[in-house]
Design a protein that fits this description.
The complex is a heterotetramer, with two copies of chain A (about 375 residues) and two copies of chain B (about 400 residues).
Chain A (H helix, E strand, L loop, with lengths): L6 H17 L5 H5 L7 H9 L18 H14 L5 H14 L2 H4 L2 H7 L4 E4 L15 E5 L2 E5 L1 E6 L6 E8 L2 E8 L7 E5 L5 E6 L3 E4 L3 E3 L1 H40 L1 E2 L2 E2 L4 H30 L2 H30 L10 H14 L3 H10 L3 H4 L3
Parallel strand pairs in A: 1-5
Antiparallel strand pairs in A: 2-3, 3-9, 4-8, 5-6, 6-10, 7-8, 11-12
Chain B lengths: L6 H17 L2 H8 L6 H14 L17 H13 L7 H14 L2 H12 L5 E4 L15 E5 L2 E12 L6 E7 L10 E7 L5 E6 L8 E12 L10 H10 L8 H16 L12 H26 L12 H23 L21 H8 L9 H12 L3
Parallel strand pairs in B: 1-4
Antiparallel strand pairs in B: 2-3, 3-7, 4-5, 6-7
Helix pairs in contact in B: 1-4, 4-8, 5-6, 5-7, 8-9, 8-10, 9-10, 10-11, 10-12
Classes of the chains: A alpha+beta (about 375), B alpha+beta (about 400).
Chain lengths: ~375, ~400, ~375, ~400
């Protein structure tokens, strides 16, 4: 058993943190959101040059051979800084799907991610799916040498700046995963901002024709591949949440030390001290569960790993809610303002439990299975 | 003991409902019902409609446009307006500066200001809080120096709600620097277009422009715009803050939101799994409905015992602030749950017109975090309960 | 609308409180529990003489014509003092059933309650019913001129000192309610103490034969009558809980004012002040709901009243748990001791939500119906 | 990073399990599994069984009977014992006075006491708290006056757990009344049969006789029974209290209780509706299982980082006390939920032998309220976290 980072991992952590501090300070985020895609190509390119985009992929595929722990390190740093660049959707959510595509289908694509030229969005949700892939109704049918798609996709994260979009659609009795270049979707998308300072969009698939080789994961595997990718994305998101919670707690403690009321620092009030202590405890418990989710991916079969990730998300969502709310409360008015850095952290912490499923969604998964406690006794 | 309304009060309530149905413009009613807001113009028009009916400032003395209603009827009125929902009167005039003026102001001030408040001809805003004086209001730094025929105010105010629409502001400023904290403060009425007064919007995390910073740079205020006695401003401010404590429960709003949640949860506008079929959601909703009933009943008990009277700081009403804010926040959170992924649509920013049914969920949730912060943070309310009621 | 007590009600409140203070002070409770039935015939007789036993019954039936509000007043006073005498089971739970018995069946019985000679226990639960009368399996069948019963009853509150026991048993397609004198059950009962300082017991019905007139509520009405009696008992229990919570809060506030640590009264610590404030808020919210439950009984049809009572019990159970736990916590070690008065209050507050149903049980009822909010708009 | 145990640690754990299965008497094992307790005799016998295997005081120095196990192995041992469940070593000897004696005691004290602690030949109890000195231990009043060849102790101690079974007690008493609060206190070892020492049971709300009051009336203690230096007792007490902080998590006990709850909830012993079929119950159980995993992992992180070392008061371990006590209390409450009406059967008092499967539910719930009170109340732990970790 071991919870420590090795020296390369510590170096990675320092490098990413330093990069973000230099190139994506909090003060730059408002301008970033005003960019055409809602993020900065320069910062994205910088992340690519650090090797972050290719990090989670095998070296044979053109990646840099990082594992879940390296993903954890990057996501925690991103969590603290909240740059809007499309890392999670490209490298983790879309990337995990690409890893499962047939070798011919993914030939070169992962290399393009590593080089920063391929940016992925994953169109899996629809207006009425409520985080359940079982509810997907968009469909594809063979047509000529390819497929004709129909239906609508919704809540596609980072759609605006994506170069390619993975589209999940019913195909026969299964779920096909298609890859389409963004220019094929011109005129079919509706974009909008999200509460956490990112972008998302809807897609009208009606009459979209794609070539045969756009089907990168066959319908008999599509459901499983998508759900594994969503798990990987949730585990990464859990780590991002830890970074964001730590940043929110740090800001709060700093504020409690400096802000004065009734002539003394408000951090001297016992009720506020105890609240901060509870925030710390919540954070450490959440961190423990995020670490479990990360470790589960490399040590457990996918079913057991999915349960560990669901358990982590329950804890992470609770802690994100508590720490986010209390950070705002302890700040008072200043915590409600957009110009203060806590705002973006609070809004992201609120959305952590709405991106890939809410607390009920993840708890449902735990309730459906055997006791969680059995798992820890191999 | 009887929770039922008398036949007269029931008839009164039905009259209110009929009036609201007949008088509130349909597009506005629809917008409010789906989480939207009234524009300043709509609020002005609606206030005049109420004023024509004699109901724009129900709690005021009859001579200045009040209704003479019992506290219970005032509560029923507020509850019906919140539940309908119809726009609520702008509190800065009707509930804050209005009562100060008719209680402590000169006859000239009463005649000049009260009729215009009752019709929202004047839009007032509040100049109390400062960057370094929030819950600790007595430590305010804005000062007024004597000048020919009046005073010159210099300082900075913060968290001034809707100041961008206002043409008048009521301001606390220090007029005697030698006095102790709470003393030596006076209460001024200031036109927003006074030279030297500058307003800077504060952007909030819900994307709204709701509050502002105000910079006073040697702003002249004539003597006639000082309310009551000089250096007694702190007393007037306490009077003002203790008013309408029962209004802080805002149970009607919570009930209206819970109804909307139940409708949306039973049949999500976009189809798909209905949250109301989920056992955990059902329980959360029922629990909040119980909370709403409990708070409403506590409010009725306080009103019935005379605890909602003007100028009287009944510490029990701290319960209303505590539980009222918590209930509002909890219903906003449940709305976020119902919206689910639809809460991802942010109505501000570079949208191109997306499905909007869940688009108020996140902004509402973000915005209502303020309820446990302003008007005496909930931590302050707990201290009031502990000290004033429990004697700790 | 009116929340005040009239002058007779205020007198009742004062009388009961004074009586309990004089004849059942806290220091006397340990000895009371050691009595053969677990309570004191002298104190019971005193309560009878005050008119409490006959209070909830119509004057025509030999009672004193009190309504739910008078019950509230008595139960709140009992809640604060926690005498173990069998008031709730005799006057409310059993008494409400008697009220629905046919006139011939109940002839004189209510008068006997008012005189203190009839003390009732209600045998409705069984080991496996978990507060649901639908799960009752004990049964009766016609036999000769009477009925032959079979099955076992469990958790019969105040069984030890009861002079008569109401027994719920399946009869045909319905639920019959039988009344048996306690001496008919000799040798069939197993008694035990309960965690809240009272007594309860189980009954083996196998082969018990009862005369025809023992059937006091016919099977087509038995289920409804029992459930109305359980509602009335729950509403009364809610009021008892309010009295107990108020007493626990009073003790706690007093302790915070007097107990010193680190040289100052512990009530000067902000975290403890805020906890006490939250206890007060919880109490007042619970009190509001208990009052609703009381008023519902005289102003609403029984279905709607049942829902109000269920709503009250959800709030009451939450508040009892919170106030009980925090009262012990704020007292520290002394709160854990039996000799200190808080102990019995804490134990009773714990059992409030286990006598006629737990929180899930009552919330299930609310969830099954329409919105609670509709009700308040006639 | 890897959560998995090494093959060696897995083998070690399997060895422990096999030992527990083979060595713990079956009736006792069954009783502990259903919420019962070990008698003092059973605990003595079991401690000797462990001592024969060399495992009765794993964390002690090898020379005095310790094992030399890594902190991880010590944690595995404790966890397996708690989960089995088997009786835990009596902490007053093994974890409290034992380490004080082998760290600060004289060679004679070590030789005299340590072997007898390791075999539970001596049953120790603790004389720290006083009626007026609980969480505020430094204000203790019990005093020791110099006497010929030793000291005479007078005063009152409270909350002495299991003192009725003890033949020795370790006592803090003030030896220098002129010194400030924490100074001038010494650490004494006192036979329970000393003349002038009287024990009075304190009955607890769970019906148990667990704690006692002790009255010292001029109790003579020879010099040889003073530990370490005179007037340094406070340092030894802090050392003692900071030990075994990781032991306060007691995750193994929570896990064992959660397993029992799941079994009972799936098939209530008396039949009837299974709580595990109820959606709300399912969720509460799953939530507590998540809590248990989180706490266990936090504990492992602290152990892996060396935070569980003896004599080192790692403030992070306050998390273990806070969350450990809350988790234990929450599982006890869930057990009460599962028992439902069966929790009405109280195992004490004038029972005639009723169905007993739910009879430990209420006493356990009542008893475990102590966990957030003793060993530094949770309020104190929060202050430690705020000050020592967050720097507030």
């Amino acid at each position: 058993m071991d919870f420590s980072l090795n020296s390369e991992q510590i170096l990675l952590k320092d490098t990413v943190t330093r990069f973000l501090g230099a190139h994506s300070p909090f003060e730059s985020l408002a301008a970033a959101r005003a960019e055409p895609f809602g993020w900065r190509s320069g910062v994205w390119q910088g992340m690519v040059e650090l090797g972050l985009a290719g990090l989670p992929f095998a070296e044979d595929d053109g990646g840099f051979g990082g594992g879940p722990e390296e993903v954890m390190i990057v996501m925690e740093a991103l969590g603290a800084a909240q740059p809007p660049e499309p890392y999670l959707t490209t490298a983790i959510l879309g990337g995990t799907i690409l890893k499962s595509a047939s070798e011919s289908a993914r030939a070169g694509l992962i290399g393009q991610i590593a080089e920063g030229t391929l940016r992925l969005a994953v169109a899996w949700q629809e207006a009425a799916t409520r985080w359940s892939a079982d509810e997907i109704t968009a469909s594809a049918e063979p047509s000529g040498s390819g497929f004709l798609l129909s239906g609508r996709k919704a809540f596609v994260l980072d759609l605006a700046g994506a170069s390619h979009v993975v589209i999940a659609a019913r195909l026969g009795a299964g779920l096909g995963l298609f890859l389409a270049a963004a220019d094929r979707l011109t005129g079919r998308t509706t974009g909008y901002a999200t509460p956490d300072g990112r972008r998302a969009g809807d897609i009208d698939l009606g009459g979209l024709w794609l070539e045969a080789d756009a089907l990168i994961v066959a319908p008999d595997e599509g459901g499983e591949v998508l759900s594994r990718a969503l798990d990987a994305a949730a585990a990464a998101l859990a780590c991002e949440a830890v970074g964001a919670m730590q940043a929110a707690l740090d800001l709060t403690v700093e504020y409690l030390k400096t802000r004065k009321q009734f002539g003394v620092p408000i951090g001297s009030f016992q009720a506020l001290q105890h609240r901060a202590a509870d925030m710390f405890v919540a954070l450490e418990q959440a961190r423990s569960m995020a670490m479990r989710a990360i470790m589960a991916q490399s040590s457990l079969p996918s079913e057991a790993s999915a349960r560990e990730i669901a358990a982590a998300m329950v804890q992470i969502i609770d802690a994100s809610r508590y720490i986010g709310q209390q950070a705002v409360q302890l700040h008072g008015g200043i915590g409600m303002t957009e110009e203060y850095r806590l705002g973006i952290l609070f809004r992201r912490l609120t959305m952590i439990g709405r991106l890939f499923g809410d607390r009920d969604h993840f708890l449902d998964r735990l309730v459906a299975g055997p006791s969680l406690l059995e798992r820890i006794e191999p | 003991m009887d929770l039922r309304l008398s036949a007269e009060d029931l008839a009164f309530r039905d009259e209110l409902r009929a009036f609201l149905r007949a008088s509130l413009p349909a597009p506005l009613a629809r917008r409010l019902r789906t989480g939207g807001k009234a524009s300043p113009e709509e609020l002005r028009a609606w206030t005049r409609t109420l004023a024509d009916r004699g109901w724009s400032v129900p709690h005021w003395p009859v001579e200045w446009g009040g209704t003479g209603w019992s506290p219970l009827r005032q509560m029923i009125f507020r509850d019906e307006v919140q539940q309908f929902p119809a726009p609520e009167p702008l509190s800065f005039g009707a509930s804050m500066v209005g009562p100060v003026i008719y209680t402590f102001g000169s006859q000239a001030q009463k005649e000049r200001f009260l009729p215009r408040i009752a019709r929202l001809d004047d839009w007032w805003c509040q100049g109390f809080s400062e960057p370094e004086a929030g819950s600790d209001l007595a430590s305010l730094r804005t000062r007024a120096e004597p000048a020919e025929g009046g005073w010159r105010i210099t300082g900075q105010k913060a968290w001034t709600s809707l100041g961008q629409h206002a043409n008048w502001i009521f301001v606390l400023a220090r007029t005697d620097r030698t006095a102790k904290k709470q003393n030596g403060i006076s209460f001024f009425l200031v036109p927003m277009d006074s030279p030297g007064l500058k307003l800077v919007p504060t952007e909030l995390i819900d994307g709204s422009h709701e509050v502002n910073e105000l910079f006073f740079d040697d702003v002249f205020v004539p003597d006639e715009n000082v309310v009551g006695e000089l250096n007694k401003g702190w007393d007037y401010a306490r009077f003002l803050l203790s008013n309408e404590r029962t209004g802080q429960a805002r149970v009607g709003l919570a009930k209206a939101r819970l109804r909307r949640i139940r409708e949306l949860a039973a049949a999500p506008p976009d189809g798909g799994p209905a949250p109301l079929d989920h056992p955990a959601f059902q329980r959360r909703l029922a629990e909040l409905e119980v909370q709403a009933l409990a708070l409403e009943t506590t409010l009725l008990r306080i009103v019935a015992s005379g605890g909602g009277e003007e100028g009287e700081a009944n510490p029990v009403s701290s319960i209303l602030k505590l539980r009222g804010s918590e209930l509002q926040q909890a219903t906003a959170e449940l709305l976020l749950d119902v919206a689910g992924p639809a809460a991802l649509v942010w109505p501000y920013g570079p949208g191109e017109g997306a499905p909007l049914w869940g688009a108020d969920a996140a902004p509402t949730y973000f915005n209502l975090r303020k309820l446990s912060i302003y008007g005496g943070a909930n931590e302050i309310q707990r201290t009031i309960v502990a000290r004033s009621i429990l004697g700790l």
